[in-house]
Amino acid sequence: MAKPTSVVDASPAIEAQQAPRKGGGAPGALGWADERLGLGKIGKAGLRKVFPDHWSFLLGEIALYSFIVLLLTGVFLTIWFKPSMAEIHYDGSYQLLKGMPVSEAFASTLNISFDVRGGLLVRQIHHWAALLFVASATVHMLRVFFTGAFRKPREVNWLIGVGLLSMSLMAGFTGYSLPDDLLSGTGLRFVDGLIRSIPIIGTWAEFFVFGGEYPGGLIISRLYMAHILLIPGLLLGLISAHLALVVYHKHTQYPGPGRTENNVVGYPLFPVYMAKAGGFFFIVFGVLVLMGGLFQINPVWTYGPYDPAKVTAGSQPDWYMGWVEGAIRIMPAWESYLLGTTWTWAVFLPGVGLMGLLFTALGVWPFIEAWLTGDKREHHLLDRPRNAPTRTALGVAGITAYGLFFIGGGNDIIATRFYLDLNAITMFLRVAVFVGPVIAYIITKRICLSLQRADRERALHGSESGVIIRTPEGRYYEDHLPLSHDEQFVLTQHLQHKPLVAGGSTDASGVARRGGISKLRARLSRWYLGHEIAKPTAAEIEAAHHHDDDHVAVGSGSTPPRELH
User: Which of 34, 49, 158, 358 pairs as cysteine with 150 (C-beta 3.0–4.6 A)?
Assistant: First the structure.
């Protein structure tokens, strides 16, 4: 038998001539992949990327982790759910519905709830995760709005966020409708009314969507296709684009010492944020599991199968669609008959029109604000909401209108629980949805301006010590403590835009621009920017400090600052 050839070690001269490994000597599969894909270079830059640290940035992460939970639990539910409206007789474990004619979708939902091990828990986790996903995405967008994180260069990412929010509403509604129970069927009837109210094409659109006259026989399978394939695919694409732009533009940060428009102060992705993100994911997952196990949601067996001739008493949609239903409930019964067609304004305007107005306003807002301020600079530092009083007031006014519409969606429940007149509630809300946002706008703007004045006084004279001093002349004043350099920076770092002036304008080189500023734009700019409190200049702060020091040195021989009468 032949002996194997002996192995000879490479000489040092030959080893010195070999090219170094790109992986830096990484062994095994990592080195193999790095030599072919260059993962080391990509990973080194990505893993050391710095992210700022603030609790409000976790709102977006909650939405992301909720979406991951939705994908995991959705795969489990997909295995057993049957998206069919074919009628069968129920023969499962729930005795109260035994032998009743139900759709296969409803029967499979009951099967998941009672006969599949862990099915009810997963169903409820999925439903709670959907609600948390929409809620966290909404609050995340509010944070972005109030802090001005949508400004240049992040307008495209804001538009992606608006698309994500609209897709999340569609995902929630399509999933909510799949069990084909009496409550979700009532919601589908509501959407059928919205579709029918579209002028000219409403009836055609209804037959196209439902595959015939409502309820048809195809809507559940179509909603299922949209819910598990189309909408998740769009969400995955938008989330990927959103995260890619966050990495490309770098994360915004709150103002503070050492933080400028050209840097990011925080911690690297590895190992700090990878550990925090991993732990936070399991916290979110754990809370959703606890909610799914302890808090019942959507018990379809108590509603029964859907019957177009029946409506559940006190039926309410999930919270994110309640404001649309409330708008329709309080809308007067306006109709017109034009061109041989009935135009149902009482449904179309508060339903289709209001949702279109909301998402259109959200989409164009970054460009409207840039037009009002004339600001074309890049912004990586966030605003304190008080330093953008008109924007903050408009946001609170919008939230107030949303809340009043939401109350309108439960006007019947409020009337029965508190023994109030349903018509009186409706009439009150018809007025309140117009008056309430105006009052909220005025109050919020006054609060923001008052906070600006307080910040100005604090920057000039320091913080209140709580110590009352009496001078020999009998006067009283409160001593003030000087601010730290860091706090002084936070109070005075923000930019303040001057209102635009009508007429011709020039660029930085003094060359006249074409067009100029119109009177309308100048007037709107004064409304948006004209009432802000001027922040103290460096000279004013220096003068105030000298003034306070003089009073401390002179003592009883002068009038102390901030005298108390």
Answer: 158
Q: Which residues contact 362 (CB under 8 A, 6 or more apart)?
A: 141, 162, 165
Side chain identity, residue 533? I
CA 328 – CA 244 distance, rounded (Å): 39
Domains of the chain: which residue ranges?
Answer: 59-259+268-383, 464-550
For residue 158, what are the CA distances in angstroms to 146, 374, 397?
A: 13, 19, 20
Q: For position 496, what pLDDT does the model report?
A: 85
**Greater model confidence, 560 or 86:** 86
512 or 301, which is more confident?
301
Using a CB cutoff of 8 Å and minimum separation of 24, what contacts does 53-62 make? 53/266, 53/267, 54/253, 54/254, 56/143, 56/147, 57/251, 58/280, 59/136, 59/139, 59/140, 59/143, 60/136, 60/137, 60/140, 61/277, 61/280, 61/281, 62/132, 62/136, 62/140, 62/284
Closest CA to 190 of 345, 290, 49, 329: 329
The DSSP code sequence of 21-87 is PTTTT--HHHHHHHHHH-HHHHHHHHHT-EE---GGGHHHHHHHHHHHHHHHHHHHHHHH------E
Phi/psi for 40 (5° steps) reads: -60, -45
pTM: 0.86
Distance CA 180, CA 104 (A): 9
- C-alpha 259/C-alpha 264 separation (Å) is 7
Helix axes 422-461, 485-492, angle to 10 degrees: 130
Q: What is the pLDDT of residues 517-535, one digit of tens each?
A: 889 999 999 999 988 888 8
Residue 219 has pLDDT above 50, yes or no: yes
Read off the pLDDT band of 318 (50, 70, 90): confident
The share of the chain scoring above pLDDT 90, in percent, equals 56
Q: 59-259+268-383 in CATH: which number?
A: 1.20.810.10
d(CA 206, CA 211): 8
Using CA atoms, how far residue 145 sits from 148, 151, 356, 369, 477, in Å, is 5, 9, 19, 11, 41
Q: What is the pLDDT of residues 338-387, one digit of tens each?
A: 877 888 899 999 999 999 999 999 999 999 999 999 989 999 999 999 99
Dist CA 459 CA 233 (whole Å) = 51
